[in-house]
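Researcher: Go.
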Amino acid sequence: MEKSAHKLELLRRIAELERQELWHLDVEDDPETYPLMPDQIDYLNEKLSNKIKNKIANLFGARFFDKMIAQRQLIIKEVRGIENFTAVKGGRIVTCNHFSVGDNYAVWVALRDYMEGKMLYKVIREGNYTNPPKPFGLFMRHCNTLPLSSQKATMVKFMRAFAELLRRGETILIYPEQGMWWNYRKPRPMQDGTFSLAARNGVPVVPIFITMEDSDVPDGDGFWVQEYTLHILPAIYPGEGVPYLRAKKEMKEKNYEAWVKTYEEFYQKPLVYGEE
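Model: Structure:
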């Protein structure tokens, strides 16, 4: 198969960022980001118009990704450890490695039968809300997304909504590595934000690590579609009585260690960065 020049360039960029240990940077040419102002976002869908758009967006989003699954352009081979998710009661944060626009839907498919009728909320970058990449604009704005913002007033609103969702017992997906690295199989060192939110709100983090294997289906860009195995790992709780700074540090370290262990066990090799 002739390989896409764009995808080959992404792989080159990923290799370079890995060598420089710039783990959080995105390799895609993202559209320009516009500031998200507080009056432009209704995090909890309190307005009737946004409730309606939310229903429509989730319907179309499910049809879009279910069609990909039917055409074997998104392949979920196996889900392991669902008991680690169901063992947690109340609000929780789910972490996942970020390597595809469809990885959040794979997480949703793995969890939806155990969500007791609730939806999966997703934290996204500011630009994916204010200037979303085509054709995902409707999904980015209305499929239970929680955009971050460069504006302090908007982030105050975000923090309040985030805490309220956890109080209600919702599940919130965050990518702690931050940027998306296309089909990157290794776990990356993480940013603090996810674990700061968990420690501040006193909720557990349920790590999910997705491993990949080549299928026999071409993806249209000269590569094989990846078959996903979702590993749902034991929840990590903030230590009772542990100071906030120490709690978030320990949670981040435990999440990374759990991902590394899963990577090494699944691929049967040690994690080494900087390899071609």
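Model: The beta strands are 75-80, 92-96, 120-124, 145-147, 171-174, 205-218, 224-232.
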